[in-house]
Write a structure and sequence with these properties.
Helices cover 49% and strands 18% of the residues. By secondary structure, the chain is of the alpha/beta class. It has one domain: P-loop containing nucleotide triphosphate hydrolases (Rossmann fold, 3-Layer(aba) Sandwich). The protein is globular. The structure holds 2'-deoxycytidine-5'-monophosphate.
């Protein structure tokens, strides 16, 4: 059967990764979390003294950029794929609110985006990939056969992320999570380099009032429809 590329974009905490993982597992495709790569760069600047008084030392980062190695590898402890930064498993660390708060320092830097987009395109060269992010259908894979654009009301997204962080044992407040989501929405849509926009040929799914299972069924119908078409070409 022909393999295709599935691009899933949308705001923070829209359930993109849940859907992407479900689709990848069902189809036997590879799932790539592009946000994890931006998070890994954020962790790198935090750990290497490149954030001073809340501001990014951009020249410092550009000087180090070639030496930042980000890859996804199997973690034998969890039996899942994990994000590795310069050989170290950072899967847990990159999910904290502190890293979320630093991502918007690095995600607008064009050189960072260029490096990560190139890596993402290499991951998808063989097709059979589901990738989620903000610019996947517009910049990384403009020719993706399926493009989904996920949305949900901001309060629903904040509630979901708050619940997720609390389950992981974090003591963040709802107000902090809400503020972070609001800030990232603003940064994602207003940055000059590759802002979040809906690709003209993307199909929008608002999941505010549907379950993850209903969302999966909806997306799978779309994918199977495209696969049937591609198979006939
Ligand atoms: O999907 P996420 O919340 O884990 O993404 C983390 C951050 O990375 C998010 O604030 C926006 C940024 N990002 C991006 O700029 N481009 C992407 N393709 C994916 C994420």
């Amino acid at each position: 059967m022909n393999r295709i590329t599935i691009a899933i974009d949308g705001f923070s905490s829209c359930g993109k990764s849940t859907l992407a993982k479900q689709l990848a597992q069902h189809l036997g495709y590879v799932y790539i979390d592009s946000g994890a790569m931006y998070r890994a760069v954020a962790l790198f600047v935090m750990e290497n003294g490149l954030v001073v008084d809340g501001r990014l030392d951009e020249d410092g980062l550009l000087g180090e950029l070639d030496g930042i190695d980000i890859r996804f590898q199997h973690d034998p402890m969890t039996d899942k794929s994990a994000t590795y930064l310069n050989g170290r498993n950072v899967e847990q660390e990159i999910r904290t609110l502190e890293v979320s708060n630093h991502v918007t320092l690095v995600s607008p830097v064009p050189e960072v985006r260029a490096k990560l987009v190139k890596l993402q395109q290499a991951f998808g060269r063989e097709k059979g990939v589901v990738m989620d992010g903000r610019d996947i259908g517009t910049v990384v894979f403009p020719d993706a056969e399926v493009k989904l654009y996920m949305t949900a009301r901001p309060e629903v997204r904040a509630q979901r992320r708050f619940h997720e962080l609390r389950l992981k044992g974090s003591d963040v407040s709802f107000a902090e999570v809400e503020a972070n989501i609001h800030q990232r929405d603003l940064d994602d849509t207003t940055r000059k380099a590759d802002p979040l926009t809906k690709a003209a040929d993307a199909i929008e799914i608002d999941n505010s009032d549907i379950t993850a299972e209903q969302q999966f069924r909806k997306a799978l119908d779309i994918v199977l429809g495209v696969l049937a078409q591609v198979g006939q070409e």
